[in-house]
Amino acid sequence: MMEAVAAAAPVQTGVQAHNTPYLQISGIFKKFGDNVAVDHVDLDIRQHEIFALLGSSGCGKSTLLRMLAGMERPTSGRIVLDGQDITHLAPYDRPINMMFQSYALFPHMSVEQNIAFGLKQDKLPKGEIESRVAEMLDLVQMRKYAHRKPYQLSGGQQQRVALARSLAKRPKLLLLDEPLGALDKKLRQQTQLELVNTLEKVGVTCIMVTHDQEEAMTMATRIGIMSEGQLLQVGTPGEIYDYPNCRFTAEFIGETNLLTGMVSVDEPDHVEIDVPELEGRIWIDHGITGPKGMQVWTSIRPEDVRLDRKPPATPGVNSARGTVVEIAYLGSYSVYHVRLPSGKVIKSMVPSSRWYEAGEEAPTWDETVYVSWRPDLPVVMTR
Amino acid sequence: MNFKRFARKWLRPGRATVIAVPYFWLLVFFAVPFLIVLKISFAEQDIAIPPFTSLLNYEDGGLLHVTLNLANFQFIFGDELYADTYLSSLRVAFFTTVMCLLIGYPIAYAIARTDPARRNVLLMLVMLPFWTSFLLRVYAWMGLLKPNGIINHLLMSVGLISEPLEMFHNTFSLYLVMVYAYLPFMILPLYAHLVKMDIRLLEAANDLGARPLKAFFAITLPLSKNGIIAGSMMVFIPAVGEFVIPELVGGPDTLMIGKVLWNEFFDNNNWPMAAAVATVMVLLLIVPIGLFHRYETRELEGKNV
């Protein structure tokens, strides 16, 4: 079984040199009438990678995926897969298969026939088709349901059939369009891991599109953040969360406190940023590339914001005084919304054990508290 | 008051009423007339008003005679001409249906695939002929097809032909007008099925390596099966009994059961014979209708998507 699956991995042609990416998307631009859907996207994907395009609806991620599948033609730009220019190849001539959002299983065909459909188009010998279908059914553990019709299956089972169908042809590139969007939340979390395991077992190179950041973070080796047709940032889930390069990414991935300010001190080992909303300064223990007087945005994650009753040692630097206006108790932690005199609300995520360990009562509504953070934690962004 | 009890008491009769309305309609306008026709078919021709004998005779001795005259049916099944006529009707209806399907499918497909704004205009064009009386439209065809009609006149004046084309009162004109008249009944149900088909299924087929033509035969065609069946029934069933078109534009050798019915009823004033001919026709049609109905029910129960 394992050998069979290993054989299902895309065949390395060996044409490519070590450092050339498996899939090269360069300068892809797509216009629908006057609307720019995808705006000069450059992206390199390595072999065996699971890459997630993440963005809200209408950001162009689905259009980009459809251009990879060949269902839309780019207005300009080039797509090269494994050394082959596929920009203008018809969908049925591409070594790429897609798992559609809500699966698009053929309703009049059984599970088996659905999986065999692509293989039949290649006119493979009957025995070959049968063994490949059996292999796929085993891979997604659907052998028992081989003769069922799609409407006789649950959502999760349909998803597995759709996956098997898109893997059956051993594509060089697998596209997943909102792979778990049609499942309910509980099933989704379980299926995420199951799906990643299957993809890794097969070793297929994979690009998925999702609007669900949790899904992207769990499944992908790298994530690309898209907004208004542009690819804003590409990186591992950790890089994207810890080092967002722009306001959009910082706010889109997880929760954050965004503060606007101006660089007032710019030294190689530290910078200071004047933030009117804090009525104080942010002191950061590393240099940034940018001149003095430049407008910047600072992102501080709620879990990095400390909440205290006592004023901090250095008032006006990396801290502020405010009133508790909202408390969301979430079991192991609470999120406090603290309103500063400027009106700005800072969110602070406080572990429930914090007060117990300090031997204090947890602060309550309308109490005056101080928020503060370590100088190494804020992320400075220039756009 | 308990809502469930309230619902049981008041909503159930409401539901029964809703269901009863169509059944009542069928009873009054289909079942009762058919039983009357059936009754007449077992009578004998008579010179009276109405021109047939009664099935029930009450005699002085207190005897109630029921007279069932099977001669009409015997005659229908005994005379080859009737068998030929039925077969001919079925044949004409069959080929009309096939031609409507071949012409109607591409039209329905094209309408279903155009953008929604233009779709309604195209559908209007399909339905536009209904705004003119059916009879007028058939007469219009007569004016076009006659030996000295518009088409022949035009072709001769241009000099393409010297003799008028034989395209009236023959098989050609019969099928032409039949297909013309029944085409919308094929297009509309086909359209209704094709328009709700998920385009992504075709994209998926393309993605899996099927070229557009292959995808059509593998996906679109099987998924529009119910539309094909519905459209075919809508054409086939009325086409079997069609009278006006074969009478007005068909050839002298066109045998259609509608024509026979007309002859028996109006020319021979033989109501019982006409009723028997009609009864056999209805029974012939009930078979395909029954099959269609069973298919539809299965589909509704979700066993045949």
TrEMBL record, chain A:
Enzyme class: translocase
Gene3D superfamilies: 2.40.50.100, P-loop containing nucleotide triphosphate hydrolases
Keywords: ATP-binding, Cell inner membrane, Cell membrane, Membrane, Nucleotide-binding, Translocase, Transport
Pfam family, one: ABC_tran
Organism superkingdom: Bacteria
Gene Ontology biological process terms, A to Z: putrescine transport
Xref: SMART domains: AAA
Catalysed reactions, semicolon-separated: ATP + H2O + polyamine-[polyamine-binding protein]Side 1 = ADP + phosphate + polyamineSide 2 + [polyamine-binding protein]Side 1
A GO molecular-function annotation: ATP binding
Cellular component terms per the entry's GO annotation: ATP-binding cassette (ABC) transporter complex
Role noted for this protein: Part of the ABC transporter complex PotABCD involved in spermidine/putrescine import. Responsible for energy coupling to the transport system.
Family: Belongs to the ABC transporter superfamily. Spermidine/putrescine importer (TC 3.A.1.11.1) family.
Protein name in the entry: Spermidine/putrescine import ATP-binding protein PotA
Automatic annotation (TrEMBL), chain B:
Sequence intervals crossing the membrane: 21-42, 92-112, 121-142, 172-194, 215-237, 271-292
Compartments it resides in: Cell membrane
Swiss-Prot/TrEMBL keywords: Cell membrane, Membrane, Transmembrane, Transmembrane helix, Transport
Main location: membrane
Pfam families in UniProt: BPD_transp_1 (PF00528)
Similarity field: Belongs to the binding-protein-dependent transport system permease family. CysTW subfamily.
Membrane in keyword set: yes
Alphabetical list of InterPro entries matching this protein: MetI-like, MetI-like_sf
Domain ABC transmembrane type-1: 86-292
Domain of life assignment: Bacteria
Organism this protein belongs to: Gulbenkiania mobilis
Topology in the lipid bilayer: Multi-pass membrane protein
Residues of the signal peptide: none
Keyword Zinc-finger recorded: no
Protein name: Putrescine transport system permease protein
